[in-house]
Structure formats: structure tokens, C-alpha cells
Amino acid sequence: MKVINLTEPMPTKIKFYQLSQWPLWALAFRPFFLAAGALAVFAMSYWFLILAGYAQWHLTMPATLWHAHEMLFGFAGVVAMGFLLTAAQTWTGVASVSGIKLFLLSMIWLAARLSFFIEIAGFEQLNLYLVSALQLVWWLAGIIILADMLIQAKSSHNYLFVVIASLLCALNVIFLSLVVLNKMSLALGVVDTAVLIMTLLVGVVAGRVVPFFTARGLNLSEQIRTPKLDKLVIVSSFFAIAWFFMSQLFFSAMSTGWIFAWLACLHGARCVLWWHKGILKVPLLWSLHVAYWALSIGLILIALSYFSPIILFKDALHLITVGTIGVMIIAMMVRVSHGHTGRALKAPAYISLAFILIALAAIVRSLLPVYLGHHLAWQLSALLWVAGFSLFLFHCAPILVNRRVDGRRG
């Protein structure tokens, strides 16, 4: 097992061609979080221009499916992989991917984003084949690196993350294959299933870090531990994902509202147990709690959408995609960017504004379409999202590309 040496200092002078020595390629969170922030701003800005009629869409796949793919498999996927490859080094003591290998992995991810816009006469779906191949290579490379680290350290209690990443990889390939076959409604069902996989990842990670961060951030004598509830959340989530996937692709008559209501109760119980009034004074804590509350409420709304025509499934789902995944991602990226570069876990006031803007984007997108009209609500939500992640980039981009404040590697 190759053990990392955190005390080895980074060189102070680096030639531009020495990629392996650049701080940006020291750990996966650096380029992946930077890429996620940039995609969050540019892809959502383009989506806003399409919605507002200022940009035309000429590709073979519908713009809505491109938007869904990039926000889920592009944006959320690269954050998840960046977090896991970084956290695995802490969990295991085994060196994670860095240097040239990390650079190549990042370039594959970037090439997949750009390949969507390749147009060659007579090869209408070439872009989709390229994206499929690049995404598959990127996912498999990340999964293999993660699995190798965990296996070397015999960290069996973390193997679940390899399973989750593998499921996301499989759904990504299935989604793109269905788009190529022009099975658009089935592709949407697959992407909705992938959202549920992401909520499973959020549930597992939150169960580990939210009580721990809360106890440390508030100087509590002990953290809340709910091992039985944590296991029940995981088992129930897998059951809900399988049930929903089958209902979307094979058995449309299957009712899934009840299982979402059950999941909402489980996540809601965790929200209540983890809550502490002191959280409201610490932005890096309340943002995580708000994101998790949004998961419970979003699941309740999804359950109700099966029984009431007033609540639309897609609107309810966006409370999770924007309010849970979006807020959790920006909060965790800020925290990890500070913590893994030797900085204090205290962000400037405008980062609190960024958290609020993403939370407002979730509310506007999921709860206000019935009052504002869907088209206007979508545009306002997109603008709030862009503003929030622009603030993230303004603050964290310099952190991600520069050395740790203590000069060490990482």
C-alpha cells in the first residue's frame, strides 16, 4: 500500500510544463470542483438563453435532455467523483490520483462536454457516440481508481461508494443509448432514476458528515449517531430506486408514491434529530441542513404528485435537484476547498449569499411555476443559480489553483 506523505512540501517554483507539480493537479477536488463551478455557470447560462429565445438549438437531441444530462452526469457527477477520490485518500491513507493522470482524466471530462456540439454533415449522431465513449471512459477510470484505493486499504465499509458510482455510470450509458435510439421518454425515466441515485449518495455522505460537522462546528460534547436509521435509509433508498426504475421502464401502472412518502419520513426524522439552533449562526452548517431538509420536503412533494394533479412530478423533483443536490454541492465544495487547502472553515459573507441564491433558485423552480408560469419561473431560477455559482467561482477558483496555505501537498 502506497501511503501518502502529507508533510512533503510543494515546490515554490514550478515550470509551466511541469504539470505534475501544479497545485491544480494535486488532488481530484481541485480540477473537478473548478470544472463543476464553470459548468454550473456556463451550461445554465446557455440554458437560460435558450429559454429566453436568445439562443437557438440545432443538435440532434432535445435541449431539455442535454440540460438534464449536463446538470446530472456532468455537473453533479464530476463533483461526486472529485469528493470521493479526495475523501478516499483521507479514509485510507492511500495516495489518490494526481499529476498527469488527473490532468488526463479532467481533459476527458472536458472533451465529453465539448463533444455535444460537434456537427459533421452525414454523421448526425456522431456527437452522441463521442460523448458516450468519453463519459464511459471517464466514469470507469474514476471508479477503478476509487476501487483500487479502497481495496488496497481493505476499506470494505466504503465499497458502497463504488456501487453507487457504478450505477451512475451504467445509467449514464443507458441514457445516451436511449437518446441515440430516439427513446426520449425512456431516457427521461433513466435520468430521473439517476437523480434518486444521487439522493442515495447524498443520504450516505450526509449521514457521515452532517452530524460530525455539526458537533465540531458548535463544539458539542458528542455528535448525534443513528446507525439503525442510517441503514434503513440505505436499504429503503435502494428499494425505492429499483421500484421507480421498473415503473418507468417496464410497468407504468406501478404506484411509487407510497415509497417516496416512506423515504421522506426517514430523511425527515434525520433532519429533526440532527437539528440544533446554533446551526443558524454558521453558514457552512445551515447550508448543509437546508439541503437535507429540501430532500425530505422534495420527496413528500413527489409522493403527493402521484395523488394530486396540482403538484407536478418534475417541479417536485427540481426541489431535490436544485435545493438538495445544488445546495449540498456548493456547500461541500466550499468546505472541502477550505479544509483541504489548510484554510479556516469560515467563508466570506457573500458565500452565504451564494447559498441563499441557490436555495431561492430551488424554491422558484419547484414551488412558484403555478404562480409565475413555468417559463418565467425556469428563467428566474436559472439566473439565481448562475449568480450563486458565479460567487462560488469568484471565491474558490483562486483557492483551487493555488498552493495550500501551509505549503504542503494536497
TrEMBL record:
<feature type="transmembrane region" description="Helical">
    <location>
        <begin position="71"/>
        <end position="90"/>
    </location>
</feature>
<feature type="transmembrane region" description="Helical">
    <location>
        <begin position="380"/>
        <end position="401"/>
    </location>
</feature>
<feature type="transmembrane region" description="Helical">
    <location>
        <begin position="102"/>
        <end position="122"/>
    </location>
</feature>
<protein>
    <recommendedName>
        <fullName>NnrS family protein</fullName>
    </recommendedName>
</protein>
<feature type="transmembrane region" description="Helical">
    <location>
        <begin position="232"/>
        <end position="251"/>
    </location>
</feature>
<feature type="transmembrane region" description="Helical">
    <location>
        <begin position="257"/>
        <end position="275"/>
    </location>
</feature>
<feature type="transmembrane region" description="Helical">
    <location>
        <begin position="316"/>
        <end position="336"/>
    </location>
</feature>
<feature type="transmembrane region" description="Helical">
    <location>
        <begin position="186"/>
        <end position="211"/>
    </location>
</feature>
<feature type="transmembrane region" description="Helical">
    <location>
        <begin position="159"/>
        <end position="180"/>
    </location>
</feature>
<keyword id="KW-1133">Transmembrane helix</keyword>
<feature type="transmembrane region" description="Helical">
    <location>
        <begin position="32"/>
        <end position="51"/>
    </location>
</feature>
<dbReference type="InterPro" id="IPR010266">
    <property type="entry name" value="NnrS"/>
</dbReference>
<keyword id="KW-0812">Transmembrane</keyword>
<keyword id="KW-0472">Membrane</keyword>
<dbReference type="Pfam" id="PF05940">
    <property type="entry name" value="NnrS"/>
</dbReference>
<feature type="transmembrane region" description="Helical">
    <location>
        <begin position="128"/>
        <end position="147"/>
    </location>
</feature>
<feature type="transmembrane region" description="Helical">
    <location>
        <begin position="282"/>
        <end position="304"/>
    </location>
</feature>
<feature type="transmembrane region" description="Helical">
    <location>
        <begin position="348"/>
        <end position="368"/>
    </location>
</feature>
